[in-house]
Design brief:
By secondary structure, the protein is of the alpha+beta class. The strands form two sheets. The protein has a five-stranded mixed beta sheet with strand order 3-4-5-7-6. Strands 1-2 form a two-stranded antiparallel sheet. It starts with 11 loop residues before the first helix and ends in a 10-residue tail after the last helix.
């Protein structure tokens, strides 16, 4: 039976080194969380992605085109249940400036951070059959919000603690519409429950996805075409 003990780390660098050591040696570790810390961390990451996307869309000229939606999309969900549409409110990323409208007319953006112990891809294959994987639950939500707001596709941005950001998209859209000439970078392909998903690096994805092509409506196509 394992023992519980406390480790005091004085700074961020020391914390990263400790977690790296524990990860390499397959030592399970849970840090105590203060109430509300997870939500604050998620909001901070959503704001970071809003700024990143604004800079990407404007070729580094602006950082205030996109921003987090009200309640991270909860307003869209609650109003949708009442049969009401709420423009630019699906997903986690909304709009501050109309120059970004084409991007949000094309994609619903979901942003997730943390969840280290829930994103083991192997669990999609060998996990409990009566328990849907966290990633697949996110995909279902993103698909429903994209469909409910008449958007063409979803993009899920994920960052586990002390890992690089990744992107999850529908593989058919990824291969035939976004990168028909091929994608340069590492890719994980997942086939499960009628889903075909591509997982790639965030930096690779947005470096190769050209804002100019989105602005020209190049990607505005029917998914069932």
């Amino acid at each position: 039976m394992g023992k519980n003990f406390t480790i005091n780390v004085k700074n961020k660098t020391g914390e990263e080194k400790l977690l790296s050591f524990l990860d390499k040696n397959k030592i399970k570790f849970k840090s105590p969380k203060k109430p509300g810390m997870g939500q604050k961390k998620g909001k901070k990451f959503e704001k970071e992605i809003s700024k990143n996307l604004s800079q990407w869309w404007s070729n580094s000229e602006r950082d205030d085109i996109f921003y987090i939606t009200s309640g991270s999309g909860s307003r869209f969900t609650s109003r949708k249940k009442l049969g009401k549409n709420t423009k630019n409110s699906s997903g986690d990323i909304g709009l501050l400036d109309p120059i970004g409208q084409t991007f949000l007319d094309t994609f619903t953006i979901e942003v997730k951070s943390g969840y280290n112990d829930q994103l083991d891809i192997m669990n999609i294959i060998d996990g409990k059959k009566d328990q849907k994987h966290t990633l697949l639950n996110w995909v279902l939500k993103a698909e429903n919000e994209a469909f409910g707001s008449n958007k063409q596709a979803f993009i899920i941005v994920i960052k586990r603690d002390y890992k690089e950001k990744i992107v999850v998209v529908d593989s058919l859209i990824f291969r035939t519409k976004l990168f028909p000439k091929g994608f340069s970078g590492k890719e994980i392909l997942i086939l499960r429950d009628c889903h075909e998903l591509s997982i790639v690096g965030y930096e690779d994805f947005f470096k190769q996805l050209k804002p100019e092509n989105v602005k020209k409506n190049k990607y505005l196509v029917e998914i069932n075409e």
